[in-house]
Amino acid sequence: MSKIFEYTNDISLNRTARVRRSISNSGYARQERGSPTFYSMEVNLPLLTKTKYDEVESELLGLIDGIDFKTTSLPSNINLTFANGSIIAQSGLTITVVDANTSGVDVQLANVDNSSNVKAGDFIQFSSSTKVYQIKEDATASSNIISFKLMTGAINPIVSPNTFTYGNGVQFKLLLNGRPNVTVVPGPGYNYYAYGSFEFQEVL
Predict the structure, then answer these.
(1) In whole angstroms, how large is the CA radius of gyration of the chain?
(2) Could you tell me the residue ranges of all domains in the chain?
(3) What is the dihedral of CA 39, 77, 54, 46, to 10 degrees?
(4) pLDDT digits (tens, 9 = 90+) for 15-70
(5) pLDDT tens digit string along 137-170?
(6) Closest by Cα among 156, 148, 152, 121 to 32
(7) Distance between CA atoms of 97 and 145, rounded to whole angstroms?
(8) DSSP code of 7?
(9) 3-state secondary structure of 3
(10) How far is CA 174 from CA 23, 117, 195, in A?
């Protein structure tokens, strides 16, 4: 995990998508999504010791001041990528994507235990893309199949034999929008280090 995300105690997660809106001469309004939903994060760190500051600085140097990307999970104590549901494999079988019933926002998985369920807002990621998705509404398995909808259509086709990650294990591919300022805070015999906010944007 990124040291920036490991040490944070404050993350603001936002969703953005381009929306097309129009109003007819008779007053009827229409709007539709014009792009997939992407996530942005504002990450704040507490005061850091010199050791932790050096670790964060080393990571920032590796990012070449925002030119390179960072792929990381989020700390489970922040509880942003929560998994209130669970997707469990049927005993002795491997969960597979049902290609015929998976397209756009619709996903169907077979060979799941009938105790499996997903909750609106839970995060899921498929091996076909770095994109992280959120589940749109609750769903429960039946006859060892679970069908659910994503908040935004799949960037790349989700097909068998794609694997998936559910909940806190998802890995966001992020771009750091500029390097925040850092100030030295004198302490009793040693210094602390305070960063401004880190602004990250999900990218593909």
Answers:
(1) 20
(2) 3-74+172-202, 96-169
(3) 90
(4) 887 666 678 777 777 766 656 889 999 999 999 999 999 999 999 888 765 567 88
(5) 999 999 999 999 999 989 999 999 999 999 888 9
(6) 152
(7) 10
(8) H
(9) helix
(10) 36, 29, 19
Identify the architecture of domain 96-169 in CATH.
Beta Barrel (2.40)
Give the up-direction half-sphere exposure of residue 20: CA atoms within 13 A in the CB hemisphere.
Answer: 5
Whether 89 contacts 95, CB under 8 Å: yes
Asked if residue 15 lies in contact with residue 39, where contact means CB atoms within 8 angstroms, the answer is yes
| Phi-psi label, residue 56: left if phi above 0, alpha if psi -120 to 50, beta otherwise | alpha
Tokens 């700390």 correspond to what residue?
75
Q: How far is CA 3 from CA 52, 58, 105, 157, 161, in A?
A: 8, 9, 33, 32, 33
**Structure-token pair, residue 154:** 């799949």
> Could you give the CA distance from residue 158 to residue 127 in angstroms, rounded to a whole number?
8
Residue length of the chain: 204
Identify the H or E element spanning 58.
helix 50-62
To which residue do tokens 């964060």 refer? 56
